[in-house]
Amino acid sequence: MKALLLFSALLLLSAALVAQTAHIVPTAANTDVDQSPAMISSNGPVVLDFSKQQLVTGQPSNAELKIAKDVRSQLLKMPLNYYGVFDDIEYTVEGRTVTLSGWLTSEHSATKKYANDAVKHIEGVDQVVNNIQVLTPRPLDSQTRRRVLNALARTGQLDQYFWQASPDIHIIVNGLNVTLVGYVNNEGDKNLATIATKQVRNVFDVTNDLHVVHG
Q1: pLDDT digits (tens, 9 = 90+) for 19-54
Q2: CA nearest 44: which of 192, 204, 184?
């Protein structure tokens, strides 16, 4: 009799465990699937050397990768008098939406519309968000841009980053505050750029957003 009762108790316990297991549903919290949205970014100003830019997060589709490639191609086709060393145009691609950002001197204010029109006609693009800002024209800012450029080009080997057709370093001056964006080959050049810029007359502050790349 005792053996029969023990056997029955074991059957009931097994049934309870099976029922409990059956109600465990996998969720995002207990899976290893990457839920982060896919995004492709220029990761800095658009420059000719493709190896020095583009940041990819998530797993973008082939269509998104093609859109990013076409966006970059269209922006690089802009005439030199539309986009130069004192401007910064960047982009991100999320799905079929392209976001443009950066800064333009007042002399190149028309480039904001030019870039927008060039991108919105790309196959696969459904929406363009244009966050490009045009800098307020100030004589002192214009003088400072030239002084910073001359200082950088004459310091060490930094002149290698100022190829006229597509400079790797871009200089943004807003109210005598200088931001350096773009790409250099090593930390030494990045630090040298900061030192040289801080020595320029009338410069209030320096923000160094240069990316260090290799090759």
Answers
A1: 444 443 344 444 444 456 789 999 999 998 766 677
A2: 184
Residue with tokens 């370093």: 169
Intervals of CATH 3.30.1340 along the chain = 139-212
Which tokens belong to 194?
């900061």
Rg (CA), the chain: 27
CA–CA separation, 58 and 34 (whole Å) = 7
User: Which two three-digit tokens encode residue 84?
Assistant: 């130069």
Each residue's pLDDT tens digit, 149-174: 999 999 999 999 998 778 999 999 99
- Residue ranges, comma separated, of all CATH 3.30.70 domains in the chain are 39-134
Q: In Å, how far are 53, 96, 137 from 182, measured between CA atoms?
A: 9, 26, 23
Q: Is domain 39-134 annotated with CATH 3.40.50? A: no
Flag whether the pTM goes above 0.85: no
* Cα 10 to Cα 25: distance, rounded to the nearest angstrom: 26
| Residue stretches of the chain with pLDDT short of 70 | 1-36, 50-52, 215
Q: What is the pLDDT of residue 165?
A: 79
The CATH number fitting domain 139-212, selected from 3.10.450, 1.10.490, 2.30.29, 3.30.1340: 3.30.1340
